[in-house]
Amino acid sequence: MRCKNPVSSDSLLKYGWEIKTEPEVRVQLGGVKEGQSVVEESPKGSDKSKRASNGADNADNKQKDRDMGGNGESDERDSGQRRITDVFLGSGILLSGLAVDVIRERRIDPHKIIERAREKNVFLVTKEFVEEFFPEEGREEFSFVVKKGRPALASTIEARIEIDRAKDITGNSISEGTVKNFIDLFRDRYKRLRNILMNRVNLKDAVDIENLSKYQNQEVKVIGMVRQLRRSKNNNQLIEIEDPTGTVLVVDSSDAAKRRTILVEDEVIGVVGVPKGDLFLAKEIIEPDIPMTKQPAECEDPVSIAFTSDIHVGSLLFKEREFRRFLDWLNLRGNGNRREVAESIKYLFIAGDLVDGIGIYPGQESELAIPDIYKQYNYLSRLMEEIPSYIEVIVAAGNHDAVRRAEPQPSLAHFLEPLEELPNFHLVGNPAHVRVHGVDVLMYHGTSMDALISALPHLSYDKPERAQVEYLKKRHLSPIYGTKEQIAPEEKDYMVIDFVPDVFHCGHVHKNGYANYRGIRIINSGTWQAQTDYQQQQGHIPTPCQVPILDLQSMQMRQINFA
Ligand SMILES: [Fe+2]
After folding, report:
1. Is 294 contained in some domain?
2. More confident residue, 64 or 423
3. Of 329, 376, 498, 546, which cross-links 314 as Cys (Cβ 3.0–4.6 Å)?
4. Which pLDDT band holds residue 194 (cuts at 50, 70, 90)?
5. Same domain for 123 and 95?
6. CATH number reported for the structural domain that contains residue 358 in this entry
7. What is the 380 CA–ligand 1 centroid distance (Å)?
8. For residue 368, how far is its CA from the centre of ligand 1 (angstroms)?
């Protein structure tokens, strides 16, 4: 791209230099050629729009040079060059292309070169300058330098983040996979969901199933776990439920039950009905559900949360160019689109499937750009490190990630070590309960959505928010046991939703979805992966590169498209 003098005289004058001419320069990825110069600045001052436009063009130029899923040597080289030139951008010091190569090859910290150039009153760093002041024996190691944008509004507001570690399996797993573990798990599930149901006015005096025979032909209430569901010849819903004292067959002959199946096996329900012989004739079926009395969350600060998931780094279909556009936007680089929103982002929630993984499904190898799980996470970490340090990033695993597949899943700590050391990265289990600025967020990847969508005819992959409403009604994130998903038999059932969140965030189905259920913001944050062959066969149409943003002050949602 050819452009006229994107050099900012403001920045150069800041260091006491004077600009005599306005050279025509060629902007190129990874630095500039000898004899040419370019400086990109944060847009500010009277020349704001022009410089912002230059930045956008430059960013676009960069994007064009990055192949999707690039993991080869040339990408490594480009990435290294980019990071060096990004350090120089805005420093007011120019850098020649040959100097970039020397700095990259010899792994010299570019900040130190800038420091030395200022000491020497040099405004153009050449290869010769680098070789003179940083001789070979002085070689030093640095990992790589992270691009950061200019301070945003959110950077002036202190983070308020609380992670409920008691609800996080990370470091708390005691499961040995024994029969006793499973018994304990289901007892805990029953007990905790029963407690929620007992708070309902119409279930307060529920009796044990073993005592039902004492109430023949009288209205009575029980609370049980659904053991089996089937239909009678007359299309009545037959529900076998159990509690620790016994089992009973519930018959629901209501029109609603005939029309629609709302229950799934293994969920815990309350039943108001009349015992008749060995049967229990249902008058009302009650799910734990969310109380109608939920108070709205209140946040006085002008901060927002960005939600995302299913990045799938390592996949050939990872939309890296668009993802980098998102990172640029977070850093307030680019053309200023929705800049005021970007300025308010204080939190970023990532609900799993950070990488595509290895061996997740048959034939996956042929769809991988990075066929090594550690390299997938390394590449992801490099991208993530570009997130401005004032944004608190909350990261959980999904079914493609390298931690155990069985839920609840621990955090990705060992796979994201470089990020773990950053104070603004918080690696949490799946699911996780995180409170930010007084707003309770329940984050769950959503793996069990596959089973739920199969079991309930009114659900579909096209409307993931409806499946999320079912989780809330059942107050459980994996209500069906023994089908597609794996459950780790922990002593405590971490999948029970035993609090009422303000926001319920999922991913997994690669389709954005939104709803508001009894005061809870339901969000499915889609994906950064294009449609896979499998999705095409199944007729699933993903919605990649759409980022939901929640303004915590107004609790208004918006979606920004980076495609
Ligand atoms: Fe995914």
Report:
1. no
2. 423
3. 376
4. very high
5. yes
6. 3.60.21.50
7. 15
8. 14
- Cα of 292 vs centre of ligand 1, distance in Å, is 33
How far does residue 476's CA lie from ligand 1's centre (Å)?
21
**Has residue 293 been placed in a domain?**
no
Distance 354 CA to ligand 1 centre (A): 8
Residue 166 class from Cβ within 10 Å (0-12 exposed, 13-18 middle, 19+ buried)? exposed
Same domain, 531 and 504: yes
How far apart CA 466 and CA 513 sit, in angstroms, is: 9
The model's pLDDT over 56-100, given as tens digits with 9 standing for 90+, comes to: 333 333 333 332 233 444 555 666 677 777 778 777 788 877 788
> For residue 183, is it within any domain?
no
The tokens for 78 are 């480009």
Tell me if residue 168 falls in helix, strand or coil: coil
**Whole-angstrom distance, CA of residue 97 vs CA of residue 337:** 31
Query: 513 with 460, same domain?
Result: yes
User: What is the residue whose two structure tokens read 């597609």?
Assistant: 484
| Number of domains composing the chain | 3
CA of 547 to the centre of ligand 1 (A): 15
Residue 353 pLDDT: 97
Residues 238 and 374 grouped into a single domain: no
**431 shares a domain with 397:** yes
Give the Å distance between the CA of 528 and the centre of ligand 1: 9
Going from the Cα of 176 to the center of ligand 1, the distance in angstroms, rounded, reads: 28
Predicted confidence band at 214 (pLDDT cuts at 50, 70, 90)? Answer: very high
Amino acid at 498: D
Rounded distance between C-alpha atoms, residue 474 and residue 467, angstroms: 11
* DSSP-assigned letters across all residues of 71-126: -SHHHHHHHHHHHHHHHHTTTT-EEBHHHHHHHHHHT--HHHHHHHHHHTT-SEE-
Instruction: Output the CA 445–ligand 1 centroid distance in Å.
Output: 9
Ligand 1 center to residue 195 CA distance, Å? 34
Q: 504-518 pLDDT, tens per residue?
A: 999 999 999 999 999
CA of 234 to the centre of ligand 1 (A): 41
CB 497 within 8 A of CB 442: yes
pLDDT score of 281 more than 90: yes
How remote is the CA of residue 428 from the centroid of ligand 1, in Å? Answer: 18
Taking only the tens place, the pLDDT of each residue in 425-454 is 999 999 999 999 999 999 999 999 999 999
State residue 541's pLDDT score: 94
**What separation in Å is there between the alpha carbon of 542 and the centre of ligand 1?**
10
Q: Provide the residue range defining the domain that includes 308.
A: 164-173+300-561
Distance between Cα 507 and ligand 1 center (Å): 7
Q: The domain spanning residue 221 has which CATH number?
A: 2.40.50.140
- CA 310–ligand 1 middle distance (angstroms): 4
Q: Domain check: are 406 and 516 in the same one?
A: yes
Q: Is residue 233 part of a domain?
A: yes
* 318, β-bridge pairs: 529
